[in-house]
Amino acid sequence: MRFTKPQLRNSSDDALIPLINVVFLMLIFFMIAGQIRPPEALSIDPPNSRQGRLIAPERILLLMDGQGRVALDGKVVPASLLGERLAAKLATVRETSDQDGAKTDIGITLKADAAVTQGQLRALLDQLRALGVERLRVLSQQAAN
């Protein structure tokens, strides 16, 4: 009895397997290395600081760009409506903190561009003071040594 060797089919699919593996590895890499959070409403380059420490941001984050535009909750807010929207946001945060039983002062984190003028910042601070904000954190980036 004579056995014949089975002939191996030359499949073009065999050449695609390494390519598929590489594509899936690249997909996993970009999913892990990519940013998950949405982009900020305003393009901001915060000022540099040689001192400071890492802190968790407050529940309310304000963004202020070099032209003095302010964003709250990821949306640019006109200056005429800023006080009203901030008051509503502060009331909402106070209600949720009262329900949690945590009696803490509500603070705001401000991420301002380095090009913001003193006058623009002063106007915003006056609005915050009028709304009863007692604690404000200003974010900066670590300066290169």
TrEMBL record:
InterPro entries: ExbD
Record's protein name: Biopolymer transporter ExbD
UniProt entry keywords in alphabetical sequence: Cell membrane, Membrane, Protein transport, Transmembrane, Transmembrane helix, Transport
Cellular component terms (Gene Ontology): plasma membrane
Residues annotated as signal peptide: none
Membrane topology: Single-pass membrane protein; Single-pass type II membrane protein
GO MF terms held by the record: transmembrane transporter activity
Superkingdom classification of source: Bacteria
Pfam family, any one: ExbD
Gene Ontology biological process terms in this record: protein transport
Residue stretches in coiled coil: none
Transmembrane segments: 15-33
Family: Belongs to the ExbD/TolR family.
Location relative to the cell: Cell membrane
PANTHER family on file: BIOPOLYMER TRANSPORT PROTEIN EXBD-RELATED, EXBD MEMBRANE COMPONENT OF PMF-DRIVEN MACROMOLECULE IMPORT SYSTEM
